[in-house]
Amino acid sequence: MPAAARSIGEALVTIAGREGVQDDDRARTAAAVDGQLPRWVVRPASIDQLGRIVALAHDDGLAVVPRGGGSALELGHPPARVDVLVDLSGLDQVLEYNPDDLTITVQAGITAGTLATLLAPRRQFLALDPPGAAARTLGGITATNASGPLRARYGTMRDLLLGVRFVQADGVVTWGGSKVVKSVSGYDVPKLMVGALGTLGVLGELTLRLHPLPDAERSWLVLLASAEAAQAFIERVIASPLQPNRIEFFNDRALRSVPVEAAAAGVALSIGSVAEAVREQGERLGVMAKADGARIVPLPEGFWSRAARASTEGNGAVLHVVSLPSRLAETERAIGDAIRTAAPRGEVWISGCAGLGTFRVRVGNASAAETAVATTRLRARLMDLVGSVVIARGPAELRKAVDPWGPVETGPFALMRALKDEFDAKRVLNPGRFVGGL
Amino acid sequence: MAVASRTAEAPDLDEIRKCVHCGICLPQCPTYRVLGEEMDSPRGRIYLMRAAAEGRVGLSRTFQHHLDLCLGCRACETACPSGVRFGSLLEATRAELRRAGPPAKHRLLQTFIFSVFPEPARLGAALALFKLYKRSGLRALVRATGVLRRLPQLAAMEALLEDVPAAAPLPEFVSARGRVVGRVGLLTGCVQRHLYPGVNRDTARLLALAGFEVVIPKSQGCCGALELHAGRVDAHASRARALAAAFPDDLDFVVTNAAGCGAAMKEYGHRIPELARFAARVRDVTEVLAGADLPLGPLDLTVTYHDACHLVHGQRVRQEPRQLLRRIPGLRLVELADSDLCCGSAGIYNLLEPGVARELLERKLARIVESGARVVAAANPGCLLQIAWGCRQRGLDVTLVHPVELLARAVDAHQG
Amino acid sequence: MPLSGTFLADLERIVGAEGLVRSAEGRLVYECDMHTFYKGAPDAVALPTRAEEVVAIVNLCRRERVPIVPRGSGTGLIGGAMAPLGGVMIGTNRMDRILEIDLTNRCATVQPGLINLSLTRAVATQGYFFAPDPSSQMVSSIGGNVATNAGGPHCLKYGITTNHVLGVELVTGTGELVRLGGKAERPGYDLVGVAVGSEGTFGIVTAATVRLLHVAEAVKTILASFTAIEDASEAVSAIIATGIVPAALEMLDAVMIRAINEGTGAGYPKDAAAVLLIELDGPAAEVEAQGERAARICWARGALEVRVARDDAERALLWKGRKEAAGAVGRLAPTYLLQDAVVPRSKLPAIMRELIAIGARHRVQIANVFHAGDGNLHPLILYDDRVPEELERAKAANEELLLACIAMGGTVTGEHGIGLDKAKNLPFQYADADLNFMYRLRRAFDPDGIMNPGKLLPSHPACGEGFRPARPRVPEGAWI
Known about the structure:
The structure holds three protein chains of three kinds.
Chain A: H1 3-16, E1 21-22, H2 25-30, E2 40-42, H3 47-59, E3 64-67, E4 84-87, E5 94-98, E6 103-107, H4 112-119, E7 124-125, H5 138-144, H6 151-154, H7 157-160, E8 161-167, E9 173-177, H8 189-193, E10 202-209, E11 211-212, E12 216-224, H9 227-238, E13 246-251, H10 252-257, E14 265-273, H11 275-291, E15 295-298, H12 303-310, E16 318-322, H13 328-342, E17 347-353, E18 358-364, H14 368-383, E19 388-393, H15 396-401, H16 410-423
Parallel strand pairs in A: 2-4, 3-4
Antiparallel strand pairs in A: 1-2, 5-6, 6-10, 7-11, 8-9, 8-10, 12-14, 12-15, 13-14, 13-17, 16-18, 16-19, 17-18
Helix pairs in contact in A: 1-3, 9-13, 13-14
Chain B: H1 13-17, H2 30-35, H3 42-53, H4 61-68, H5 75-79, H6 86-100, H7 107-116, H8 120-135, H9 138-145, H10 147-150, H11 152-160, E1 173-174, E2 182-186, H12 191-195, H13 197-209, E3 212-215, H14 225-229, H15 233-246, E4 253-256, H16 259-266, H17 268-271, H18 276-280, E5 282-284, H19 285-290, E6 302-305, H20 309-312, H21 319-326, E7 332-334, H22 349-352, H23 354-371, E8 375-377, H24 381-394, E9 399-401, H25 403-415
Parallel strand pairs in B: 2-3, 2-4, 4-5, 6-7, 6-8, 8-9
Antiparallel strand pairs in B: 1-3
Helix pairs in contact in B: 13-25, 23-24
Chain C: H1 5-15, E1 20-21, H2 24-28, E2 44-46, H3 51-64, E3 68-71, E4 88-91, E5 98-102, E6 107-110, H4 116-124, E7 128-129, H5 142-148, H6 155-158, E8 165-172, E9 177-181, H7 191-195, E10 203-211, E11 213-214, E12 218-226, H8 229-241, E13 248-253, H9 254-264, E14 274-282, H10 284-300, E15 305-308, H11 312-323, H12 325-328, E16 335-338, H13 348-361, E17 365-370, E18 379-383, H14 388-407, H15 426-429, H16 432-445
Parallel strand pairs in C: 2-4, 3-4
Antiparallel strand pairs in C: 1-2, 5-6, 6-10, 7-11, 8-9, 8-10, 12-14, 12-15, 13-14, 13-17, 16-18, 17-18
Helix pairs in contact in C: 1-3, 8-10, 8-13, 9-11, 13-14
């Protein structure tokens, strides 16, 4: 090991302590990102340490790759460089919980599962349920803007993140937003950090808006003859007085792996409210389903976590497809066509917030090359549908063959690059992974 | 710019200061709706008045122009949460402008208007001439020469006066039908008596049916509203005194069927304290009839109602005319979108500022078409003239009526 | 610095003579927004009708380094839509069309000058509404709402403007017309998220795509009156803590109740020291159950009276009073300072006690009408501007109150924004590093600093560098 590297290693040890810095092959191999081994795996125990680690990297021209639970490392381009992998799982403290205000401030390395356990006694929750959330860190969920079925009612992290403490590329610890539920004091910096994949700052601390858990919640599955029928049914539900907190579409393959009952398409809904309202709305839902000639079955507890698991099982690629609610059926067909044309034996699991036009697509029995072709084809099809296709998971080979983010329009991209140039001119943070190789 | 140049007619600074600049009046203001600029909004105009009062701007031609553009519809007063009396501020500012500001625009036209309109006899004579003009070939000649194109204000007036009906004088006293419930005076108005004599006749008849003795003094003149709106406060005051004197003291109410007159008369007391008692007795005909028991037969009509500014904003009478119309069996009253947005008539505004007036009229006509109604009721002669003219121009099959005309027809239907 | 004749001629070529205000009288009325304390007339006002004209104006101003101030309906409360450095004001009032209503995808695209309430009116018959409802909604423009990230009573449940903006068309400080976001979300930085609330310092919004929501099945408006403001505050904290998320939860104090009753005759109880306006909406059964729960809480906190609006007319009347509160204050005093700091809602009783003490200490009357459900205060500190010493007392009370809110973990503004008014207060809440980040963020959108200079951030350094924050210490010997 060259002298400079040795002294950087020593400096890291000075910052994070002997136990916080690993540079042995085993640790480095375990922390590899798309096959690239970091030179150091550092686990800060405080935001202050995090700031000093990033400052050090900045001054030495090293690339920092932040990692939370490690479940979304296949999102985006393979990194241009990986020098210091910062493992944020040590920053897992609850800093301030104000149950009467429905707000909480936590360190970014705490997992959604730990948080849920902590909030349950007060019958409160963080209304975000991306697949695998329990093991994911809140920093990771924020950086990747991950969401799940609950988004239909509660929105995404951009609607829940009130304040954020992060470390800029030069190591300066910075705060944006506020700790109260309503604030327009200065620019909305938290929004900028959501979904930025840590390329403008490493997330250290989050202040979040919480919601009261509904008194009661029940779920149903409506089985329909086609995606068109599902779309029509969803449109009627949304235009009705019903107030579901989830409206999730499932294609036939996704339904089979849940599994409840087989059908060409299904719409799973949950309603959370006071018990009386849940019962009453359930009845109305039944009437609506019958009017459409559709079967409706009550769903057992645990359905939603089973559905989330099913959407991430296996090793196949996962695509996030965004279209419009008015084009659900069309989009579903486009996805199926694109994949089956490229990969004759391919299988497609589709689920998603159909009311919002966002889909989670899991591809099975397709090679990376086939998936790449399918992705390109799907993008071409969705172009006129104003949508986007992002590879949320897939081997590096796939993400090298095809841009995992897809095209970004010139005007907005110029602004994004200007932001990256302004805040990370030396390309310290997660270099190369974000849109357009930022 | 010396504050000293201000006259006794300057608007009350305390009233100006009640404006908190919230802007709630903006979307209610017809000129703001048309022009979309701050100085042609109530908030902007008040700001200019304040600036003038504080000596930050002079009574310049630009200042005058933005004040001239105001229709005086007072929709801003209805909207204002702080209760700013914009109408009074406007009158005072216009008076001040007349005394200390630049010469008025369209001076000749204004001189003509103010020497004819408020003088029922002269107006009658002018209209007789107009009839002659219409029947003789003169009209065709005038139109052919294109004179009117170069004098848009004259064109506006010429166009408005399409049909002038023959005026039949009303008796000085109409006795009540059935049990007498009260005694009222009737203002016959300048424009109303010559252009819509039927409205006065129907008003008297309905009041009698409602149990009122109706006194209609021959000696009554003009209420002075047009002069007040133009800032001619002295002329207004002498007309007001004369009008009040023309009516006997024993009346329960003095009834008007012209919103502009009613609004001005109800506010006589603001400027002339000794007329406060008279002012307190002034009522719009719809207010008086709202409580009366009228024998109404069915009319199979779809009607929409346009709120005359000086009734809805100037007098805050919104529900009574609608309630009366709804009482007519078979009549379907449909709401008119933006019913309380000025039609552009605004006294003599359409004669002085035909551009903005025209745009407002176009909007009014569009809303009328959307309403689907073929009959539009409005309780002010200016609105009736303006909207009827617009309908003719656009070839719309729409009839304009005063609400009392519909009530009278319903009475006929009951009796017939 | 007055604009040159050539510049004005160029400007006139872009917007036409009828789209340009040059007269002294015309410019004067544009010198302030609703915060009349801050005055600064622009050197010209341009009233464009198309985005292309806005692009041309920005390019012209950029070439000549002339400041640009965007303005909607001028109802802001922060001195945002005024021109402290002169320059060109761009009024969006003539860009007021609805470009598209797409009910299937529950969104609409509108021009910036469209009045907020006009959008809801356009979709109301189909059962939809635009959720952000600032009290100025009958006059404020959607462009202005986007610029200030406006909130309103119903933001308690539905969120503020940013939660309802899907996309914006923006002319940035470099004169580029960019479309950010849209009906369907796209990968990349959330530029829409930072553009909303940027108060015109990134550019001018020339169109916005906003979400439309479906009207709830049932609405219940409850009015609860109390003899002490502390009791009402505690009722608010208890309602939130119990897990009810009302659509709106508003509080008015005695001073305000009097002004409103005189104004609109809203029929608020005359002898109450505080009134809570609680609105619940949602499925009928939920609204019923939660309404009972909220009423019980009010009774338990010593309510004088708990009244449920019987019909839409009564509900509208209760709200009319609330919506016109700021205007009705004109009946109490000619001038006031208004701010909108936020405290954690559990701290409401404490801050109300503090507020009363501050008012007494500085001998100023403070009227209160505010979004209690989010802890968003709106103290109106009344003063008479003809008495100079009164203004000083009001300002002192104002600053003390702001600091008290920050000390309780709050923020300097919950919905009005920063503008010129609170730029000086921003350091109460943010460290140099935080402000530095914001300066640099602004620079990415407006490198020349021509967009609404002097607003949102304290003292505007020409280079945008602002502060040099302290960097963390790096261990010795690391630079070998």
